[in-house]
Amino acid sequence: MDLDGWDGSPPPSLANPALLREPPATERGARTRATLIAAARAVFERLGYLDARLADITAEAKCSTGTFYLYFKNKEEIFAAVLAVAEEEMRHPGMGRVADTGDPYAVLEASNRAYLETYRRNARLMALLDQVANIDPAFQRLRRRRAQAFIDRNARGIAELQKRGLADPELDPELTSRALSMMVSRVAFSTLALDEGGPPDFDHLVGTLTRIWANALRFPDHRG
């Protein structure tokens, strides 16, 4: 997973802090900046990062190039601002700590559903992130750091389940977490962002990925 993790704490940001400016001091400035960010997201999602031009963004925002430069230096800065805003939208409530529930299968299913619902709402942006990661080494490093944080967090959850006798004790938590987390995120990418094979039945998608997780960990039989 790469939108949220097992305990719901804030993940590392994808927005490069070196590219983020202080927000405007005035209400009017804040509105103009927000309009530019919304316009940039629409343009990036429609045209892709490489083909998007500042002229496209200012046209979408119905403002001048001069106004753009009051708030952003270049395309890289406004892309970072888009990510900073989008991360708040993309964060879901999480699944709490697995160790604190009597039914880890139900919690896992709820977490997968929340993750996939958030992914579906932001599918075009998720496809854009994949494109940018392939052309920007700095962004790729940020994305890998973020993904590793989720892998580490899920590994801690798996280790807790092992201690409770609810997961296969012979599995390596970190490697298992890496395999299963990447499985969910890549299936989400291919089915929801790329729409490969046509749009899936959403409940079937959630149920299948959850069952694969549970089967891999050898959860006790689930009775629901």
What is this structure's SSE topology?
Elements: H1 27-47, H2 54-61, H3 65-71, H4 75-90, H5 104-121, H6 123-135, H7 137-163, H8 173-193, H9 202-217
Helix pairs in contact: 1-2, 1-4, 1-6, 5-8, 5-9, 6-7, 7-8, 8-9
Folded structure, characterized:
- By secondary structure, this protein is mainly alpha-helical.
- The chain is 66% helix and 0% strand.
- It is built from nine helices and no strands.
- The protein has helices at 27-47, 54-61, 65-71, 75-90, 104-121, 123-135, 137-163, 173-193, 202-217.
- The chain is elongated, with a radius of gyration of 20 Å.
- The model is unreliable at 1-7 and 92-99 (pLDDT under 50).
| Biggest sheet statistics | none
Q: Could you give the distance between the termini?
A: 24 Å
Secondary-structure content class: mainly alpha
Low-confidence stretches: 1-7, 92-99
Could you tell me the number of beta strands?
0
- What is the quaternary state of this protein? single chain
What form results from the Cα inertia axes?
elongated
List the secondary-structure elements in sequence, H or E. HHHHHHHHH
- Average pLDDT, rounded to a whole number, is 86
Task: Report the sheet-strand fraction.
Answer: under 5%
If you compute it from the alpha carbons, what radius of gyration comes out, rounded to the nearest whole angstrom? 20 Å
| Count of alpha/pi helices | 9
User: What percentage of residues falls in helices of 4 or more residues?
Assistant: 55-70%
